[in-house]
Amino acid sequence: MLTKGSLMNADKLLVTVAPCVPPYVARGLPGLDLSPQAIAAEVVRSHESGACLAHLHVWDEAGNPTEDLAALELTVRLIRERCDIIIEGSTGGIGGLSAERRSVVLRVDVELASLNMGSVNYDRGVYVNSPEDIEYWAKEMRRGHIKPDMSIFEAGMISNSLALIDRGVVEPPFLYGFVLGQQGAMAASPRNLVFLAESLPAGSLWSVFGHGGADLQMAGLAMSMGGHVRAGFEDNPYFRPGELARSNAQLVELLVGLAKTLGREVATPAEARAGLGLASRS
């Protein structure tokens, strides 16, 4: 029975949309529009379908990683003009970019930012996030009044997060994202999800992002445990095996429908901001 204080109680569900398709996925989706206008439209439609949070990357109009903020700044402005969804920026990136260059997203109007809590094997490569860089990103987020969304690929990364918390670098309420099923990292299984959720500080909020086709199974389990969920082309562009989704909004609708079946009410952006300790934008 899941009774540990670290498991969030069954408050309203936070649904995140992640529309930024990785380049290797985009190659299998011919004709996909990755312009700021198209990404913004996808986010707005997903918000209308129930998403309260959008996870965005610093990519150019072709969907390739860049340090140029022009496309992202336009995307954010177009979103802000049409809805009040919470916007999270990614500090992720495979390659040899410095910590400073990977954190350019913190210069944009974002309220949350992903904070990868350690290094991990990533398919045939290595995703490097050194302790020094992690602390740098966390301090930059605190300086900019941006809340860290601590990404966990392996169980040991929770220990890294506790060290930051103990030093006061990250403040409550703590927000975690479990990335499970990534090739080379922790598998997407019920046992692993329960273990991770029970290992968090009391009162933490957490979401799960299932890769390798495990997104819907992990989402259903997370909802049942009081956790939160994410959908979008970044994680899985398929509505069902062999059938590409028509839009990110269709994937969000799938999760919202499942939430209703399980009795989880979906949070609005305003309700999510209150639960996350973010400033109101009204």
CATH superfamily: Aldolase class I
Report strand order across the widest sheet: 1-2-3-4-7-8-9-10
Number of domains as seen in the coordinates: 1
* CATH hierarchy class name: Alpha Beta
Largest pleated sheet: 8 strands, parallel, barrel
Q: What is the CATH third-level topology name?
A: TIM Barrel
What's the total count of β strands?
Answer: 12
Radius of gyration: 17 Å
Which residues form runs of ≥5 with pLDDT under 50? Answer: 1-10
Anisotropy-based shape: globular
How much helix, percentage-wise, in residues? 25-40%
Q: What proportion of the residues form beta strands (DSSP E)?
A: 15-25%
Question: What is the compact description of this entry?
Answer:
Helices cover 36% and strands 17% of the residues. It is α/β, with parallel strands linked by helices and 282 residues long. The strands form 3 sheets. It has an 8-stranded parallel β-barrel with strand order 1-2-3-4-7-8-9-10, surrounded by 7 helices. A two-stranded antiparallel sheet has the order 5-6. Strands 11-12 form a two-stranded antiparallel sheet.
Describe this structure in words.
By secondary structure, the chain is of the alpha/beta class. It has a single domain (15-276), classed as TIM Barrel. The protein is 36% helix and 17% strand. It is built from ten helices and twelve strands. An eight-stranded parallel β-barrel has the order 1-2-3-4-7-8-9-10, surrounded by seven helices. β5 and β6 form a beta hairpin. The radius of gyration is 17 Å and the shape is globular. The model is unreliable at 1-10 (pLDDT under 50).
